[in-house]
Amino acid sequence: MTEIKINDLNQVFNHQNVLKNINLEFKNKAIYGLLGNNGVGKSTLMNLMTERILPTSGYISINGHNIHNNDVALQQMYLLNEDDMYSPSLKVRQIFNLTNEIYGNFNFKFAKLLSKKFDLNLSLKFGKLSTGYRTICKIIVAFCVPVKYVLLDEPTLGLDANHRNLFYEALINTYSHNPRTFIISSHLINEISKLLNYVIFINNGKIILNNSIEIIMKNSFAITGSKDDVKQYTRNLNVIGKRNLGKLSTFYVYDHINNQTKSFNIKIEKMNLQRLLICLSNIGKEG
Amino acid sequence: MTEIKINDLNQVFNHQNVLKNINLEFKNKAIYGLLGNNGVGKSTLMNLMTERILPTSGYISINGHNIHNNDVALQQMYLLNEDDMYSPSLKVRQIFNLTNEIYGNFNFKFAKLLSKKFDLNLSLKFGKLSTGYRTICKIIVAFCVPVKYVLLDEPTLGLDANHRNLFYEALINTYSHNPRTFIISSHLINEISKLLNYVIFINNGKIILNNSIEIIMKNSFAITGSKDDVKQYTRNLNVIGKRNLGKLSTFYVYDHINNQTKSFNIKIEKMNLQRLLICLSNIGKEG
C-alpha cells in the first residue's frame, strides 16, 4: 500500500537544481534508507516532505491528498533533523509534555524507559545538554510521538558506538511493537543497512537506486582475481568500480550473475551496501 | 622504541577527575586508536599531549624530554580537532602556505593530489567551506605537515561514506610512504579498526584496554547456543556481555579460548572491535 507519493518534484536554490524531477513512493509500515553523499538533496527532500519548505514545482501527497496547507496530513509526520526546535530553557520532561500537547498520545512509558537506557536526565534543560544528548532527546521524542511517518535525518551524527547501538535496538523495539514508516538518512551505511527494508539512493539530485534491500544485495558482488580473469569474467556485466592491490584486481559488479566460475580463477564475494553506494556515486569520475 | 610517554597524568575540571592517573607509551611509527565513548577524556588527553591545556598533575615527555614549554618537542606534533584555527578569510591555498611557513617542508604535491581527490577548491575561503569540507581541509594539512606525531580527534565526523573512504585510503597511502605515529580517535570503530596497530580504550577517565589489535582480536569471541550450553561452556571464561534472541543466547567473551566445543552445541565466532568496546563500556551497568 502506497502512502506517501512524491510527484515530479523540483527544487531550485540559488539557480541550482538541487532536486531534479523526483518521483517516489513510500509504502506503509516499512523502513527506508534515504542515502547519498553530503549535499545531494536528502535533507531538502525531508524538509519538503514535512512542508518546512515549499517545492519549486511538483507536489507531495499522503493517501492521495496533497500535503500543502493540509494540517491533518502534516500532523501524521515527524521530522528529526539538526535543527533544535526547543527552547534551551525547557527541561527534557517539559519537552515530552509539550509534544504530548501538540500530537497527543505521547508514549511516556517508552520515553522513560529509553531515557533510562540512554542515561538522559529528565530534569536537565535542553540548552544544558551536550550535542550528543540533544540528539538523544530528539530521538526519544521521535520514537514516542504517535505519527505514521517518522523521518530521521542523520539521527546518529556525533553519537558514540554505545549510543548508536542503543538507537538501533530502540528502533527495532519500537518498530516491532508498532510498525510504521521510518525514513532514515545516515552516512553510516553499513550499520543502518541491517535495519532497512528499502534503499533510496540519491546522487546529484536524482534517484539512482530505489529497491528493496534484498534485491539490491542479491545483485551486489566483488569479483577478485588476476586482472585478465576478472576482466574476462565481467565482460558482459555491469561493472561499477575497480580496485587494484598488487597483482590482484577487484571489480565491483551490480548485476545478476550466475556462479559458473569453473574456467576462471576468481573469487566472488558479496559487496556490502556502503561499497555499492560509494561505487555508484563515483561513476563517471576519473580514477 | 617508545617515543611519547605519559606519566601519572591527572586532569580535574570543575571538581571532576576527567583523567585518572594515566600512564601510557606511544611507540614510533605506529597507528593508534584512542577509543572510548563521548565524554571519557579522549579529547582532553589529546589537548594535553599537544599542550593546548596544562595537566593538573603528571607530565608528558618525548624521547625523555618533558614537553612543557618545549617548542622543539611541540613542533613535532600536529593535532586536528573540531577547533577551527584558521581565519575564515584565508583561502585553502593560503592555509597550505601558512602551514609551510610555520612547520617548513609542507608536502604541497600530496596536498594538491588530495585536494583533487576530495574535490576541494583551493581558491575557496575557509569560512565559505561546508562543515565537511572544513574537516577535509584540516585532514589534508594534517597529512602534509612534516611532523613525527599526527593526532586526529574525530577526523571523519560528518564526512559521508565516500569521503571517509578517501580519508582511509589517504591515511594508508601517506603512512606507507612515510611511516610515522598516528593517534586517532573515532566513534566509527569498525571502520577505523582495519587501519590500527594498537588500541587504547578509555572509560571514565581510565585506561581499560591497551594492546595490539592482533592480540585483542585473538581474544574476542561471540559464543552462541542454548543458554545452558553457552553458560556451561563459558563458566571459567571472562564474559563481558550477553544478548538473548528468542531461545538463543550469545555471550561475549574476552579471553583465551580453545575451540574444543565437541560436548557443546554452540557456535564460536569472532567478535568485532566495536562490539568488544560496547561490552567493556557497559560492564557494571544493569541490563
From TrEMBL, chains A, B:
Keywords: ATP-binding, Nucleotide-binding. GO terms for molecular function: ATP binding; ATP hydrolysis activity. Signal peptide: none annotated. The keyword Transmembrane does not apply. Residues 4-229 form the ABC transporter domain. It comes from the Bacteria. The keyword ATP-binding applies. InterPro entries: AAA+_ATPase, ABC_transporter-like_ATP-bd, P-loop_NTPase. It holds the Pfam family ABC_tran. This is ABC transporter ATP-binding protein.
